[in-house]
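Fold this sequence, please.
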Amino acid sequence: MPCCKTCTTALYITAPARCSPNGMKYLLPVRLLLLTSCLYRRLTSASTMAAMWPKVILFRDSITQYSFKDGGWGAVLADKLQRRCDVLNRGISGYNTKFGSIILPKIITKETASNVAMVTIFFGANDASLPEINPQQHVPVIKYKHYLQSMIDYLKAIEINEERIILIGPPPVDEKAWEVECIKKGSTLNRKLAVTGEYSKACCEVADTNNINCIDLWTSMQKVQNWSEFLADGLHLSKKGAAFLEETLTPIVLKKLEYVGLQFPYWADIDRDDPAKTIEAYNPYCPSQ
């Protein structure tokens, strides 16, 4: 029996490989590629486990780049996934979806995709910049949806399906606080709450179209009294805001990764007379076996 949903999906998709002998030469490479994601990890010995340690990739702009600061949402998520997955911060400050769609294939390649357990895509705050004030970062909402979709399509093309993707929409903007920051930099207010809300809605629409989990920060944060406390400067997350996001994101991630156990067996379960036997036989993707 398959050990997890990934195995089940792979075995189901590759069933047509049992066709006529003439078709085997064409279907076999496809079959092997689809099985790589989970079965290869099941069969890989502990001696090569370092290369296959599952990865959760946080992809976005500065709100993700700063997520590993003290109390940051990325740091807390990494702590909760310790010894199960490596959480990689791939936040690139200032980037929008247009720029992000170009660098995503450089961050996650076809060769490295097999051990990517989860990807978060968290764009919109820069795309929503007002075009008349900040044309460098602005992306029209229609194009924003297009670039989000292109990133999803790319991930699917390298066998990272919708179950392993989470979209996160932009948080609300505290215009009064952010205007102070803009003036400090010699600009006028370059983002507005209502405009950012349009991008949040668009993000959710793309997620719904693709049957992908989406976190709507713009809406959920504003349901809390004094929601401006979630923002450090009117745009970026404060510690309270980071905690809000982490508490929303972590249950989704843990549910999706419940098939991943601890990497390497618990110390008390190791046969002290023959530790290599226990370690080599251990399967972190079916830890009960």
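The first helix runs from residue 5 to 13. The chain has two domains: 1-52, 54-256.
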